[in-house]
Write a structure and sequence with these properties.
heterodimer; A: 567 residues; mainly alpha; 4-stranded mixed sheet; B: Rossmann fold; 4-stranded antiparallel sheet
Amino acid sequence: MFKTFTIISKNVKVVSRNWMYVALLAILPLIFIFATSLLLDSVDSENVEIGIVSDSNSPPIKEIIPEANFIEYGSFEFCKEDLKSGAVPVCIDTPKGSDIANMEIYFDNSKLFLSKYAKQYVSEKILEKQLTMFELTLDEVLFKMNHLEENVDLAKEELEMVLSELIVQEKRIIEHQENLSEIKEEFDESHSDVKENQELMRENIKTFGEASENLEGNITEFRERNEKLRMQIESIKPVLEETLPPDEYEEVEEELNSTLKTLDLIDKNLEVLESTGYYDDPDSMLEDFDNAVETLDKMAILFEELDDELEKGIEIMQKNQERSKEMLEEIEKGKEDLDEIKGEIESASEGGAVLHDAFEIDESASYLFFPLIFILIIAFTSIILSNIIIAEQTHKKSYIKEMATPTGDSIFLFCDFFVALSIVVIQIAVLLLLGEYLFNLNILSNLLYIFPVSILVASVFVFTGMSIGYVVKSKNISILISTFALLFLIVFSDLIVPRQLSGNILRIITGINPFVIAEKLLFNKMVFSETIKSAGLYMALLGFFLFTLIIFSYFCKKVGKYKIMKS
Amino acid sequence: MEIIFLDDILKKYRKNKVLNGLTLNVEKGEILGIMGKSGCGKTTLLKGLIGMINYDSGKIYFNGEKINILNKNFLRNRVGFASQENMLYEELTLMENIVYYGKLYNLKKSEIIENASQLLGLSGLSNSKRLLIKNFSGGMKKRANILVSLVHDPDVLILDEPTTGLDPILRSSIWEYILKINKQGKTVIVSSHLIEELQEYCTNVAFMHRGRILGKYDIKDKEKFSEETLNKIFIKWLS
């Protein structure tokens, strides 16, 4: 144990007495993280310069993206030249009078990511404009459809009223028809009786004519007799009043008055008989009778026709009712279709797919990129530092002298690792404090997770750098290989191409990249204060890498020693 | 009395036989100079003697005990080694180097301090023990290098061309230091290609050629170690 402490103490002294290490490991990463955060915070799609070719003073794109940086060109050829030289990533050709739908947009596809950002920025703005226009159109369509729906409702109400009136009318006509049928029936009965007895009645009228010649004398005689009677009654009344007791007289007088009224009635009847005039004109009576029969015949025909007309009217009413019902059904169906279309339009106007930000987090690039930059610095420091320490050590003659001592390689291996890791741990601590206080990430509250994970990842990187340092004889080549190892880790990560966009093989490679695993493990904890689901699996994988690298670096040390001995 | 005996040693790097049937015995207390052309196998021989490499075949005896891969640390604890180049950490002081290497040889701090005070007196570096090695002069570095090789009090000190690159005055001061060490009872094995040095300071000289010891000669034995002998050896080397 004391041997280990001695070697560590020696390593610390050797490292700490070289100011270049301090500069490399303490100052440069700090400068790097500040510079990176400044750079990242200045990133904005609005900075994209857009070349526009237009013979119009206000091309539509200027209305769509008024805040953009536009560079105007006289012709498309000039714009294309600048596109090729990288001066602008987008060229928009907008001939005079063209609208949003007729713009020709050219992106610099030779610069993959810039092109994607520019495409996303311009497309997003155009889409926003188109969506606004679409929403306005939909609102207008909806307004008109609502109006149409109101009209349809009104028409339906009107039609329903017409239908109900038709039903009422039909009932009335049916009632009239029934009444008419009854009257007609009675009429037909009377009419047939009249027809049957027409000749007999004509004979009777003729007979009545002959008898009416004596009627006038008889009426005069009746009137004279009535007058005599009235006078006799009037004359007898005072006699009876005097002779009879009052009670009896009252009864008699009542009888006498009644007789007088009867006589008045007879007079009136005689007047009526006289007023007909038939008694002195029997021919006229016969003519009137014939006319009356003829009228009755016509009435019978009229009744028949009226009955037919009513029947037809009922039929028409029923047909109209049917048509009204059909029309109502059609209107109902049309209204349903209208509602359906309206619903679709309304749901379309409500947006359909709505884009949301799933998390309420600080979206500044320096905040979101901190875990990545943190891992990047740790990976850089761990690999390069451990490699430099080992490369420096193996190129000293003291390394050969150490080989001649009775101290095992494993002890040296552990001590080298411990010293390199100690320096990285200092850096981890400084960076985590920066993350907490400068970038406001959730670090200190999750320190029990973040710190061990950082140490685990750093250990993997340290052993990577150490292995290269032990096995590669040339110091420069060793540092170069370490740099390439670091580049390899970076290239097969999210830094250049997001792994979600890559193919299966590349995704597997990036999936087991310790750099990516570390970023996955730390990002969620630092940003969301949450542990990712497969954290245990990833940590086990890192543990496996660490174990493999310990064994590998031990063999690298042996191989390196053999090479030194041989030389 | 024999302290080291190498018997029929073979060491190959791929097909190249660097040591080819080498046999050598080293007497206790002697200063043995090993001389040979560059590439004759001197350094490989010495690396094997300090336990840094394993020979492919042959036997090594140290104080009569056979050395194998399992008891290599036995050899390491009894042999000290210094090369022509500085093997100390330049960023550490001399004392820090002494303590560091002492600990690697499993010594207690008290033992290290005790040994160091004696060795510092012997090397004349007592006043420089708190200085960083990178601030030492060339001669001081050589002496410091040898001093640290003795911190674990080995029986045998192996020096690989210890005076290379030094001026004659510094060379003689280093040899004086080696002689002092030898007088402390340490056996010293020195490789060099400077025959005059070996003639002047060694008790015996062994000549190496193509991985073999051509012969080991006592400097004081004028009959064997003569001008004629040297000429024969040089003719053999040239052929």
